[in-house]
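During the first year of the project, the team set up a workflow for recording each protein of interest as an amino acid sequence followed immediately by a discrete structure-token representation. This format lets reviewers and collaborators read both layers of information side by side without switching files. As required by the reporting guidelines, we include two representative entries from the current panel. The first entry is reproduced here exactly as it appears in our internal archive.
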Amino acid sequence: MWLRALALGCGSALLLAAVYALAVRTVPGQRFEDAVLVAAEGRGGSRHATLVLSADVVSLVLAVAALLGIGWARRAPRVGVAGVVVLVATVIGAEIVQLSVSRPRLLPHGYRRDDQSFPSGHTAIAVAIMCALVLVVPYRWRLATLVLSSAFAAAVAVAVILAGWHRPGDTIGSDCIALLVVSAATLVLDRGGRLRRVPGRRYHYRLAAGYGFSAICCALAALFAGPLLAGCAIALGGTALVALALLVLLARSESAEATHRRKVS
């Protein structure tokens, strides 16, 4: 388990740096992402997208209450607190990155929007909720929890694109930060004896295959579709990859109170 967590954490950090370098610090990256913004503003924004995005604070408060409640119901309060830490650390991490990096003006002419929007705070909240819930809930609830929370995260990621609030790379940056944080939390829980193997439980092969197939379809759509649809496809594909990564990271294991059982390897 700790090897998977370490590998996923390192990979997420490297991908975060790569996405920032390619999407924000290169001319082709800025040209594509600004084309997405032009297409979104040409639609006048989406009222449905704005409705989704207006519930960010409410969803954050409800998620904290749900995580603590699940931990209490499972008689594993520290696990619930770990979920809250994942949620808060992801949101704070996204804000720190946004304040620390810059977006240079590389396009000599044409449409340019100079705001530093990398990464997306709204997407960070939604993806962090997904990661924290999947980490905290019992294994038997994981499938339903992942499907519902990933649908919410995908809706928010697409909404920030349709509303013209963020660029596609911003959503992927938030995905990377959430995966980095949940990998660190999983590593700490594993070394502390708070992850245990779930006997007799089958791995969610079909669900993992579904998320993988969705990510491939989104990648193909991003290659051949127009700017706005391509931007939405990138955001959706990022959410699908996060869900797939969670299934691999926590395969056949669940969080619990400290146990003397042999830890998952």
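The second entry, processed by the same pipeline in the following quarter, appears below.
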Amino acid sequence: MADDLRVQRIAFLVMTGFLLVAPLFIYPIFLMKVLCFALFACAFNLLIGFGGLLSFGHAMFLGTAGYASAHAAKVWGLTPELAILFGTATAVLLGFFAGLLAIRRQGIYFAMITLALAQMLYFFYLQAPFTGGEDGIQAVPRGKLFGLIDLNQPLAMYAVVLAVFLGGFLLIYRVVHSPFGQVLKAIRENEDRAISLGYDADRYKLMAFVISGGLAGMAGATKALVFQLASLTDVHWTMSGEVVLMTLLGGMGTIFGPVVGAAVIISMQNYLAHLGAWVTIVQGIVFVICVLAFRRGIVGELAKWMKKSL
């Protein structure tokens, strides 16, 4: 256990060091997109990888927070930090009420309830006047952070996105390694036994759902400012499927797996864009190969290999 924690801390330092110098040789906008989706995938992994709860509607948090953040920044004129906080708070509130409904069921029923709620929100945002319908909320102002730092400068915006990602990542790391995280894992492994030991399983699952939704919302709120756009794409069910793919590809139940999975998927979408619709087929082929060759995901298999070699 101590060795695993030491390896994870070293990996975090390496990851942080790389992300600090990455804008010098990688396009900052691309990096910001990767970081937003990496946080989204990490939030989803907290729910499924450590809580055993498969949500097919997690895009509702990403999209709702994006709309809330974009509307707050463009219409209400809030500063970027307040817009992100508002979007995150909206996702937390949504997570609480959605969780109250969803956690009453388990397995595929839980997944279907989350999907149904997400689709309801999708059609609501399609018709709601404040979302702009199919056009979305465009030309969202980035503004100045704390009234001082102009976020229209790519490196300044990147620094904010990096800080948001690292903050969310560290929060997930702390939750996973806290007593709360240990109880959550126990519920994932055997819920009946955890209940027999006196733990309120529904309360723990609801808390995990709210935390996961809030962090996914923080990713969506940040993404809306980065691309100065909030659209229906982030609420669509395909986005929920995409985050499942990222998590499984990188390694479900691992700390760094979702980050790697998000980086691989976004890189494929970016660098294979010239293939058009074939990108989806290529992603499917890569996913099938990884499932067959790396059943624990990329990071999961690497961790297994390192343990054998030590």
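For the second entry, the following points were noted during internal review. The longest strand covers residues 137-138. The two ends are 14 Å apart (CA to CA). Both points are flagged for discussion at the upcoming steering committee meeting.
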